[in-house]
Amino acid sequence: VSSAIKQASTMIKSNHRRFSRGVIVLLSNSFGKRFATAIQEASNEFKETGQELISIDYSMELSAGMGLEDIASPGYYFKGASNTPDINAGIISALCDGCYSIGGAADTYKIAEDNCETRKGFLPTVYDDEHNYFLSTCELATVAG
Fold first, then answer.
1. Which pLDDT tens digit goes with each residue over 90-128?
2. Which residue in 43, 47, 119, 136 has its CB near the most CB atoms, within 10 A?
C-alpha cells in the first residue's frame, strides 16, 4: 500500500497534471501491522503537500479496518458501502471542491449535451491545461429561465 501511495503521489505531481487536484482513493479492508509505519509515512507525506487521501473501509468487523481511518485525510474516512451517498459526496468534494454534482443522466457526450441544453446550460469542453484550470476554479452557475 505504501508503494502504491508513493507511486500515485509521483503521478499526481507530474507536469501533465499540474492543474489537477491531488486525490488518492484507497479501497481496502485493512493492512498488515508490519506495514503500518511505512503506510502512515507515505500517506502523511502525500497529505502534507495539501492533497487528500480518501479511505473507504470495507472490513466486516469493527476492528478489522486497522489504520485506514488514521491514514485518511480529516473527514475522508468512510466505513463500508452502506454510506454510498456520503462516499460520493466526499469524493466529489475532494476531487473538485464541490464544483460538480452527480447527475441522473448517462455520461455519453450527446446525452450530456442534450441534458445541459434542456436545462438551459452549456457543456464545457476542455482543450488543454489552461481550460481545465479555468473550469475547475470558476463558479459555474445555472441561470433560471
1. 776 666 654 544 455 445 677 777 877 887 777 777 777
2. 43
Domain residue ranges in the chain: 2-96, 104-145
- pLDDT digit string, tens, across residues 18-44: 667 788 888 887 776 778 888 999 999
- The amino acid that residue 138 corresponds to is C
The 3-state secondary structure of the chain, one letter per residue:
CHHHHHHHHHHHHCHHHCCCCCEEEEEECCCCHHHHHHHHHHHHHHHHCCCEEEEEECCCCCCCCCCHHHHCCCCCEEECHHHHHHHHHHHHHHHHCCCCCCCCCCCCHHHHHHHHHHCCCCCCCCCCHHHHHHHHHCCCCCCCC
pTM of the model: 0.56
